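dumping these here so i dont lose them again. two proteins, back to back, each one seq then structure tokens. dont judge the mess
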Amino acid sequence: MRKLLILGVFILAVVVPVRAQEYPKAEVFGGYQYVRLNPGGTNCQGFGGAAAGNVNNWLGVAGDFGYCKVTGLPSGVSAHTVNYLFGPRVTYRSYGSLTPFAHVLFGGQHFGGTGGGTANSFAMALGGGADYKWTEHLAFRFIQVEYLYTHFAGTRQNNARIESGIVYRWGGR
């Protein structure tokens, strides 16, 4: 009985500080997005956004959206992509100002080009990034780097996506 009581006190001593840690209930990101489209090796530049709800100090659910215009195409030709991805995010919240995170996102990607040709595809992103806390509510996302998989017209695409921008956080616990 005595050992059980000691174990219970130990568990409470460990769990209570973990539950007391501050973390935002929600986060919104907006910023620059760069996508390297492969095969073909073309660049796509635009903007990205994300919204995340945090379940606890380390686990959240994210929705990530982006738009970019393909650059380096011949004159008179234009193309763009829109991606929409959702999934779990794991965050390491230390006591410092740097907050690294990792996520795996699933969704779709839309490709549109000159002449009204469009296509939709399954998309998956695997990656992460790091935010630097400026104030209680504002942070700067140094970098978010991801492997972005798509599959258009029977062709696998192994793309790279990079984002950077501002994060607004609220609802701290």
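---- next one ----
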Amino acid sequence: MQEYLPLGEHKTPIYHSEQFFKKNSQQVVFSYIHGYNDDDFPLLLHQHDFYEINLVIDGKGTHYFNKQTLNTYTGDLFIIPPHIKHGYTNEHNLKIFHTLLSPAFFKVYPMLKSLNGYKSLFDIEPSLRSTNINNFLHLSRQQSEEALNDIHACLNYSQNDMYDFNIQSAIIFQMLCKYCKYYTNFATPSSNYPTEKKYTAMIIYAMEYIQKHFAENITIDKIANELFVSKTTLQRYFKQVANTSPIRYLLQQRINASKDMLISTNNPISFIAVECGFFDTSHFIRTFKQHQGLSPTEFRKTL
């Protein structure tokens, strides 16, 4: 991490998926390499309403992400979630492989979200990167070489042909599966890690565990047992890394899931309460109102 120096805003501060992915088109990925032209950098601050994957394939520079900056080198991988300002400056020969993912990509490959490492890589790590804790994925030399082969294969296909769309998206899906696997190994606590990294990895694992099992009857003791640490140790480092307690984090996941169901389904409140891990309907209504200022029914009506 380095001192934050202001970076100007891009002439197009917000990009929308419709600018890259035509409606009713089968194209769900858009890939290119940034850095071959002298005027490619600085890549000024901008955001978009879709996920973007950035892999540094050469050189070094500075990565700007949600008012944080960090030095970046060949092999660094960054997941850019929707609506997060980001940009880059070049220090030496910086080249970045960009992959834009249409929202439809996750409908074509729904199994991606069930993979170990997905939630950590796509949701948890970016949120921690925004708060000065950087555990982003860095590919080894062998992994980088393999990724370059995949990149060359991907870019060999046209972005104007229906058949090529599908081949490109399959290659990108394969690459993302590898990244999830790499991050699972990277974020698994190891006795070989320095203490700070070991406990950060432990909390990332705990956060993903909670995101996957929030609908179940899980407790702090159960999470601590899963990690082979004491309840006190878990709570102390969770607060340090995530800036909240495990219980509050669990509750927030349940609230977030219930909001999604209230928005996207017509399911009864009682059904949503059970599906999101609340004790009963009254507990759900009371807790939801405490956090949102509205009852679930009122929240649904505002939509």
